Amino acid sequence: MREELNQGLIDFLKASPTPFHATASLAQRLEAAGYKRLDERDAWPVQPHGRYYVTRNDSSIIAIKLGKRPLLEGGLRLVGAHTDSPCLRVKPNPELTRQGFWQLGVEVYGGALYAPWFDRDLSLAGRVTYRTAGKVESALIDFQVPLAVIPNLAIHLNREANQGWAINAQNELPPILAQLSDPSAADFRALLADQLAREHDLAADAILDYELSFYDTQSAAVIGLNRDFIAGARLDNLLSCYAGLQALLDSSDEESGVLVCTDHEEVGSCSACGADGPFLEQVLRRLLPEGDAVVRILQRSLLVSADNAHGVHPNYADKHDANHGPKLNAGPVIKINNNQRYATNSETAGFFRHLCLENEVPVQSFVTRSDMGCGSTIGPITASQLGVRTVDIGLPTFAMHSIRELAGSHDLAHLVTVLRAFYNSAELP
What we know:
About 25% of the residues lie in helices and about 25% in strands.
């Protein structure tokens, strides 16, 4: 099971270089399992015990499995994660021609670590909006092949590099695409039109706009002397999206389950398709009975907010509280913050810990050092939006927000096991 899950995650990461592709990948897997797509612009012919999914902005997705048990009796079991990761996004007018090189101007999306982006074989993917035959359409593209690089400056020309190097995002991050003898040949929209034709056999009259991200073409892999680790891009937080999907698809038909994977978490979640927007509430209100039944159902429900946790790094152990250093391959982490950066309380933490013990899954706790700031995720946002009880958890990782992150190769199976048990649980606290 562990090897199969790890390979499934690797395949999912490869197919999901952007939130748009991740949402499409999740939708494809849901449809293969019998889930039906609902369009928000249409009336929803929802049937008892049905299986459905809804997307918004092509970058967020909610999957719903209506169980046999009445909702007013059993409530909902929700798992939340996010589809976006820090990256470099192409600017609207990106063409730069300097010293005979064609470069693209980029904007940093989210809290990215800059240095790991240097000297990587980069490709480009995302959504393109174009005009054809007088109509405005959109399509996803993925160049797949390495087509850009951000070369480091040689140590001979930057002698202080190893003593600390403040990278300027405006000047030092534009990737190089090509050498050009004629600067007028640097036409990015023409490049996108060619890709649309190659990938989709589409003839675009004009490229109107786009949301495109650079990504590392190196595949994720199970690595280490004893194959102890998974290394790859976008583990934060596609790992949790994949684990939630596998758990939902493997769960029984008795209880009602929801998987919520939303965009824009890395920039605050405040958007029409983000966790701080109305997407989840609107979907639930269309699916649940009217009147006070919605509140009654939500008060019988529980959300597991799954987002990666900081594992204790052997070279930087002092960055953790001595009693709260989560280890890789030692199970999921319950994340706690008394200033409500995480939505966990003693009741929800106790229930998740109980699930782990019942299913022989190791479990850990994380509290940040008292003299350091604490990150947050969709847990407190969703809890405050819906009033649903929430526990924030995640798998421990290294190098969070790097272009290549590291997790334990045993932990994905642990997370899928406990999330499946959660979806199947007959009693919530």
